[in-house]
Amino acid sequence: MIQLTILKISGYGPWTLTLGSDREHELQILQASLYQQLQKLFSEKNCLVFLNRSDEFFVVSNGLGLKEHIEIQKTLEKSFEVNLTISIGFGESPFHANLKAFEGKENKIILDKEHNIFGFMSNGSDSKVTIMHLDVDDITSKGRTNSPYEISSIIFQLYSKMSKYFLEKNSLTFFMGGDNFMVIASDDGKNSVQDFITMIKNDDQIFLNCGIGNAHLCRDAVKLATKSLDTIREIRDLGKEKPEIYELSC
Ligand SMILES: Nc1nc2c(ncn2[C@@H]2O[C@H](COP(=O)(O)OP(=O)(O)OP(=O)(O)O)[C@@H](O)[C@H]2O)c(=O)[nH]1
Ligand SMILES: [Mg+2]
């Protein structure tokens, strides 16, 4: 069972207009500060924030109750001029948890009226998070034949394919920077990653490595996924035949 918390800036569009036309730099500063603060507040509680279009944030929030969500919301209300609406959902797959959070907000299922929190909380039983950390093998060599902007274009095309492929497996993909992606994965998503790696190798001549982490809480799953990825690199760098996928659980 995975629990997702989605935070979205409330009434952002109309509010941005109040800043006039010379506003883009201010919005960028606000969005970056908000992300920084959210990552700090949630990671302290064993969660991880995934940046989604900068005005919306996804958090894998297994283990976090309503009380902790209210505490975080209070801190945010004190720190920022804009307010955030929080919606919470849980389900067997990350995509279904996202649907449940959406349903909670659309149907105004109130968890805490004063602090704008909607949705459905998991009772904490059967908590399970699977994270896949995917990374391009030796992006550095591509950088010798492609300019920085061309590399970005390659990475975003890859992101687009990854997002579509794993959404069909009820899994959610996020771009983490550089050549790094994380998929909040369902069992189906995890079981399909070899096919995805093979498809991208054949279609685009891009070689991917995938570290997988399974844990009860998100930060532990992310840590294990990255450790798995680093293990693939270590095997490769010893000159041995490397696996494309490596998995750790706790
Ligand atoms: N988000 C995130 N970014 C990382 C991480 N490690 C490296 N990066 C970013 O990824 C970029 C590319 O680094 P690497 O993937 O190590 O370079 P590479 O040539 O592909 O080397 P290998 O992946 O080992 O084959 C770096 O410049 C960083 O921007 C990580 O754990 N998380
Ligand atoms: Mg790489």
Describe the structure.
- This protein is of the alpha+beta class and 250 residues long.
- The chain has two domains: 2-119, Alpha-Beta Plaits (2-Layer Sandwich); 129-249, Alpha-Beta Plaits, CATH 3.30.70.
- Helix content is 47%, strand content 26%.
- The chain has a six-stranded mixed sheet with strand order 2-3-1-4-6-5. Strands 8-9-7-10-11 form a five-stranded mixed sheet.
- Helix 8 links the parallel strand 10 (208-215) and strand 11.
- Guanosine-5'-triphosphate is lined by residues 135-140, 176-180, 226, 233.
Mean pLDDT: 97
**Shape call:** globular
Largest sheet: 6 strands, mixed
CATH superfamily of the largest domain: Reverse transcriptase/Diguanylate cyclase domain
List keywords for this structure.
250 residues, alpha+beta, Alpha-Beta Plaits, 2 domains, six-stranded mixed β-sheet, five-stranded mixed β-sheet, 8 helices, binds guanosine-5'-triphosphate
